[in-house]
Predict the structure.
Amino acid sequence: MNHLELLTFARGSALNWALSIFVLGIVLRLFEIFGLGRKADLARARSDTPGSGWRTMFTRSMPVPGMLKRDSVTYIGGYVFHFGLFVAIFFLAAHIEFFRSMTGLVWPSLPTALVDALVVAAIVALVVVLAHRLNNRVKRMLSRFGDYLAWTVTLLPLLTGYLSYHHLLFEYTLMLALHLFSVELLLVLLPFTKLFHTFSLFVSRWYNGEIAARKGVAS
């Protein structure tokens, strides 16, 4: 199989399989979460704080007072990485064209040079956060295989996308195929790894905020 055939496979059958597994996996995980149900809480609510869930969704996205100074690498690195990844996925012209072909929806793109710079920032942030984790005894002890797997499959699309755009390391067709394969690997693993927090993050924060308010404790 030559490079062009490999790219054709990545754009065709491999992408279709990855998208199918991704969608089925997300539906399955959401069904598991919302289908389990909870026992009715018959206890009287200890406080009346309407909107606690929604408020927690916002406050948990901000650093806890004092933590930005105590663990600036984790917080700043996390913000930079997530923002760069978000912009790369949804505001690069080539990606918008992909979404248009899939859904018919289209929106303005950002300048490629800006997206490229944010991708570099995201890659650097990922490397710094990993180095910080490895050099922090507590975080290193708490880290499991799933943490490093999630880090790897998140880095690969950013790195291969950067290399393919700048025509580095391998011939462009091969590098683009590798970029697509890395994205497909991410799609396949996302529903079944810690990366699923992409979909569960705000739901869990809302739920925790509502439960904490009902119990009369801070969320």
In short: The radius of gyration is 20 Å.
